[in-house]
Design brief:
The protein is mostly helical and 360 residues long. Helices cover 71% and strands 0% of the residues. The chain contains 15 helices and no strands.
């Protein structure tokens, strides 16, 4: 159960769209070099350290860091605040995913158009106008609440509450479903993606390094950032989960979790680039001209457009957005569980000392 919970927390939205988007932006296979280097140098060692801290000290991030040094509590506090911030961010995206998931049962899909060449435009219009109801500019004000998004976010927070309200017991039951199910859905989508027409062109773009994108240090920074995003290190989650698992080999757990996480990212890359190759063929453009709306556009514009063009479009749309929900909800309640662990830890601040100035 611990491995299921750790893998579920680590594997999230960053694996499905941020990792492929970084590969798309930084030369396909060329991005794998800084990514794998960061995994070896930062990801696995820090993950093992956090597992060991939580396991040995039996506490959340703040108390664990206070035990390490009285002045290190701020590191744990910062990690807890980061977890809460990520939870709110994930809840919004999962709210959008819920809207798309429900819309996937409508036939034809809401972004359907008879003109295949306009399907991307229709998908973009649906995302920005029907789902987000985006204002023309900030000068128009914030606008009224989008009640469909509010209701979908309330639904997500209810799911998060039900997942963690009984602590380890309820989390253990939930991850037994939400961890393996996305893998099953991902495998189905993998075979669908790689058998699409022109998918090979997209997969070649993914695997073939383009070192001309190494024009500044951004690719190094983003390689390390992706490891932080996708493994969950530095967010207090791993310390909190390991605090409930004191009697296992935490180094082995770190290797297992990190390698499963990275293998999943690469599998997601095959799915995404297979679909991008398919869309490039349909649009009559090169693969590097398909994605023009950033990482959010990948999940909520390009993929819906591609799904609409496929046979059995409703079926695969349901699978995709169900997978998105399962990947995200694991990470979302892990962020909240991390913060709750800190809140419930008995922490005494009376022994803390503050730096003082010495007058010479």
């Amino acid at each position: 159960v611990f491995i299921f919970a750790s893998v579920g927390a680590a594997i999230g939205l960053g694996n499905l769209w941020r990792f492929p988007y970084m590969c798309y932006k930084y030369g396909g296979g060329a991005f794998l070099i800084p990514y794998i280097a960061a995994l070896i140098v930062i990801g696995i060692p820090v993950m093992a350290l956090e597992f060991i801290l939580g396991s040995k000290l039996q506490s959340g991030a703040v108390r664990a860091m206070l035990t390490v040094h009285p002045r290190a509590g701020g590191i744990g506090l910062a990690a807890s605040i980061l977890s809460v911030s990520f939870a709110t961010y994930y809840a919004v995206i999962l709210g959008w995913s819920t809207i798309y998931f429900v819309a996937s049962f409508v036939h034809p899909l809401p972004w359907y158009t008879e003109n295949d060449s306009q399907v991307m435009v229709k998908a973009e219009d649906y995302y920005y106008n029907d789902v987000l109801d985006r204002n023309g500019s900030m000068s128009d004000g914030l606008g009224d609440p989008r009640y469909l998004i509010v209701l979908s976010m309330m639904f997500i927070w209810v799911l998060v509450f039900l997942s963690i309200h009984k602590g380890v017991k309820s989390v253990g039951l939930v991850v037994m479903i939400t961890m393996p199910l996305p893998f099953l859905l991902l495998v189905i989508l993998f075979f669908r993606a790689v058998t699409l027409s022109n998918a090979g062109e997209g997969i070649e773009f993914f695997l073939k390094p383009d070192f001309t994108k190494y024009n500044n240090a951004d690719f190094l920074v983003n390689g390390a950032t992706q490891i932080f995003f996708s493994t969950g290190i530095g967010q207090g989650i791993l310390i909190a989960f390991a605090s409930f698992n004191p009697k296992t080999n935490q180094v082995r757990n770190a290797f297992t979790t990190a390698l499963i996480n990275s293998a999943t990212s690469i599998l997601c890359g095959f799915v995404v680039f297979g679909v991008l190759g398919y869309m490039a063929g349909k649009m009559g453009v090169d693969v590097d001209q398909v994605l023009t709306h950033g990482s959010f556009g990948l999940a909520f514009i390009v993929f819906p457009a591609a799904l609409e063009l496929m046979p059995a479009s409703n079926f695969f749309a349901v699978l995709f957005f169900l997978m998105l929900l399962n990947l995200g909800i694991d990470s979302c309640f892990a962020f909240v569980e991390s913060f709750c662990t800190v809140v419930h830890d008995p922490v005494s601040y009376t022994h803390l000392t503050l730096p003082t100035k010495r007058i010479v």
